[in-house]
């Protein structure tokens, strides 16, 4: 079996640390790993698979030594500058930022949904937004069977999706709550503890946020439904990790609820937790450290002819970012066998 060389860019960040954990679990046939970061974190010593590594500073000549794959988790500006350089050296980049997601030349991949598009890459593959990834995993099989007519997204997104400073804002809010002490916010415009912020990313001229626009446009691209009517409201909530979503779906075709649930149960990457008699439904705390997408509160929407409500939960740092990217690499390795 061929062995590969992989670079992890942004190795010391939130997603980078999770990616290291997932790579240790996966045990892919990678003969050599190299870890990169900005100059600020370069020189950091990390332990990985029982060995110690020094994190290198990412530079324009970093990919001259030759890599098969690179996973980028260092922000859009870094990706825009260095991903084309890596790709020009024969390395396939899987990029976690939004830099290339809507580029028509770049496939936007969720392995359970559209793995056939991986082969269309020209050196760069985009990893979708975390909230989009967990939504399309259950939506794809339902679209194939009943044809989706319209989607309404309402999300409840954890602070880990905002990076280390988002986590610190929640931690500081918890610490200072009893004493009523003031504290400096690191990330959010308002305190996130004991609060909900209907504001993820920047506001656009149309009144939506960039996060909401991402969900709308990325869902259309991944499902290959460019004109699909979708609306979204994305909200940051005081949860450390794992995003929750209420998804309202209207179909073109009729469905039997039992049949729809069976379809979800048989879908790759989906775990149905839907037993309301025993208060069983997906919870953020239970999704942590898992790569599956959990679906529950499955019930008919009686306000339309053929509609359903879903409650969808997943670990946004794993399935919503690191694990999805690594699954893409895993698929490419399988395809090369």
Mind explaining what this structure looks like?
The protein has 337 residues and is α/β, with parallel strands linked by helices. The chain has two domains: 139 residues, NAD(P)-binding Rossmann-like Domain (Rossmann fold); 185 residues, Dihydrodipicolinate Reductase, domain 2, CATH 3.30.360.10. Helix content is 30%, strand content 24%. The chain is built from eight helices and 14 strands. The strands form three sheets. A six-stranded parallel beta sheet has the order 5-2-1-6-7-8, with helices on both faces. A six-stranded mixed beta sheet has the order 10-9-11-14-13-12. Strands 3-4 form a two-stranded antiparallel sheet. β13 and β14 form a beta hairpin. α1 crosses α8, α3 packs parallel to α5 and α3 packs across α8. The protein starts with a strand and ends with a helix.
Number of strands: 14
Q: Shape, please? A: globular
- Give the second-level CATH assignment, the architecture of the largest domain: 2-Layer Sandwich
Biggest beta-sheet profile: 6 strands, parallel
On the 0 to 100 scale, the average pLDDT is: 97
Number of helices: 8
Q: Helical residue percent? A: 25-40%
In angstroms, what separates the terminal alpha carbons? 7 Å
| Helix-strand topology string | EHEEEEEHEEHEHHEEHEHEEH
The percent range for strand residues is: 15-25%
